[in-house]
Amino acid sequence: GIQDIGLDLIHFDQMYWYTEPYSCRCEFCRHRFHDWLEAKYPVDRRRPRFGFDNFKDIEPPPYIGILSNPSVKHLRSPLMQEWALWRASEVTRQYAAYDNYIHSLNPEAATVGNPNLNLALNLGFQNGVSNDDMLQHGDVVFSESPAYASWTPDGRLLSKIRAYKTARLMGKSIFAY
C-alpha cells in the first residue's frame, strides 16, 4: 500500500490477543514463549521463581476455571505472570516491526495501532497489551473506551480523559471511538 498506491496511513486494528483462555498456543507461540523465558531467566534464577530449572517442556498456563473477565488476583502463578508479560511483549514486538517497516518505506507515512486504549480495563492480562511499551511505536493510537463524557447519577464524571492524557504523554495522537 505504501509503495504501490502511495498510502500515507496504515491502521492495524485489534493489536492484541484474544482474551484468555483463548489466546494462541500453537507450536510457534509455545516455542517463542520458551525462548523468551530462557533469555529472561538465567539458570540460577529459575528454581527460586518457578520451582524448576528447565523450561524445555514448559507449556503455557491453561487458565482453567478463570472467568472470561480475569483480574490481577488470578496472577498468583509465576507462569501465568510470565505468560501475560510475554503476550504483551509479542504484541509490542510485532507492532514495532510493522511501524519500522512502514517508516523505512516512507518516513512521512503514519502508523495507527488499535490496542483499544481503555485504561479502565486490565488489558495487559486480558489481551496482552502493555500501553507503556506499545505506545513507544506508531504515530496514532485508537481508543474504543465506552466512557463518553457524562455524569453518573451519583455525580461522578465519566470521560476519556485518561486515554487522551496517556496518548499525549507518549507523544501520540489519538482516534477515539
Q: Can you tell me about this structure?
A:
- With 177 residues, this protein is α/β, with parallel strands linked by helices.
- A four-stranded parallel sheet has the order 1-2-3-6, covered by helices on one side. It has a two-stranded antiparallel ribbon with strand order 4-5.
- It contains six helices and six strands, in the order βαααβααβββαβ.
- Helix content is 38%, strand content 11%.
- The radius of gyration is 19 Å and the shape is globular.
- Strand 4 and strand 5 form a beta hairpin.
- The model has no long low-confidence stretch (mean pLDDT 88).
- The chain has helices spanning 27-40, 43-50, 78-105, 123-127, 131-134, 161-169, and strands spanning 9-12, 110-113, 140-143, 150-151, 157-158, 173-176.
- Note the quaternary state here: single chain
Amount of beta strand: 5-15%
Helix residue percentage? 25-40%
| Distance between the amino and carboxyl termini | 25 Å
Q: Nearest-angstrom radius of gyration?
A: 19 Å
**H and E order:** EHHHEHHEEEHE
Main beta-sheet annotation:
4 strands, parallel
Number of contiguous helices: 6
Spans of at least 5 consecutive residues whose pLDDT stays below 50 are none
Overall SS class: alpha/beta
What value does the average pLDDT take? 88
Q: Order the strands across the largest sheet as they lie in space.
A: 1-2-3-6
Shape: globular
Total beta-strand segments:
6
